[in-house]
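Anyone opening a protein record will find just a pair of labelled lines. With that in mind, the following record should read easily:
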Amino acid sequence: MTDGSTLPAEYEHTFRVIREQVTATRHRVQLAANAQLVHLYWSIGTVLLERSKSGQWGSGVLNRLADDLRSEFPSMKGLSVTNLKYMRQFAAAWPEEASIGPQLVDQLPWGHIRALLPVAEPDRRARYAVAAVQGSWSRSALVHNLRTRVLERSGTPPTNFSRLLDEDGADLARQMTRDPYVLDFLAVDGDLDERKLERALVQRIEETLREFGTGFAFVGRQVHFDVDGNDFFVDLLFFHVEQLRYVVVELKTGEFRPDNIGQLSFYVALVDGELRRPAHAETVGLLLVAGKNDAVVRYALGASNAPVGVASFDLLPTELQRALPSEAQLRRALRPAEDAQP
C-alpha cells in the first residue's frame, strides 16, 4: 500500500475531482428517481380520485388495497392507507400532471409535497414548491415558511440559500438521499440481503422457532406500522407466550454499527406503544449481525435505555435474557437460512 509520503503530487486534486463527480452523479440519480416516484404517486392518486367519485371507495376499501399492495410489493414502502390518501390529495391538488414538472414539484421529496397539500390556493402552493427547490429548503424549513408566510412578506422567493450557504444548499439533496421511498422504489436500498434472509427464515419457520427455543410464536415478517403517515417495517416480530412479551428481531448482514441500536430501540418503543397490552411484559429487541466487535457492542448497549441485545445478551437483566435465544441457537437458526438464499 502506498503511504502518504509517496503519494503523487496531484493525488489530492484527483481525489477531489472524483469525489465531486461521484457526488454530482448520485444527486442526479436521486433527482431522477424521485421524479419517477412523484409521478407514480400522482398516477395512483388520480386512479383513486376517479374511483372515489363512485362513493364506494371509503376507508375500508383503501385498507384492503393497502394490504394487497404491500403483499404484492413487500420491499416497497409508502403504500400505507394513509399514504394512499395523500396520493389522492396530491392528484386533487395538481389535477394536471403536466404542471408538476414546470412547478418543480417532481424535484421535491414526498415529505415536502405532503407538507404542501394543506395549502388551498393553487398559486400559493406552486410558489412555495418552486421556492423550496430553488432555496434548497428542508421539510422543516418549508413548514416554517408556510406557517410564517415568508413569501407573502418578502414579495420574492428567497432563492439564494444554496449559493450563499453551502451546508443548507446541500440539505435538499441529503433529504432525498435519506428518503426511504426513493430507495425502496428502486429496490437498491442495501437491505436486499436482509430480505432474502427474512424470506428464508420464514420459509422454515418451524425449524427457526425450534432453534429459538420454547415459547416463541411467530407474529409476522416486515410488520407494518404507520406513524403519522410515515411507514416503518419491523423485520421479524415474535411473541413469547410464556413471558407474555413481544420480541422484535432486526437482521443486518453486515458488521454491527452503533446506530443499529438506535433503530432497534425505536422499533421496540413502536411495538410497545402500538401492540403491547397492560397484561404484557416489556417488549425486548434482538439484533442479528454478521459480525461484531464486542467492545463496540458494549458501549452501544450501555448508552441505550431500551431492552435490546446483540447476539450475546449478558448486559440484559436475567429475566430478559430468558426471553431471547442463545447465540448458539441463533447461529444454528441462521446457518441453514443463509445457505438457502438464492
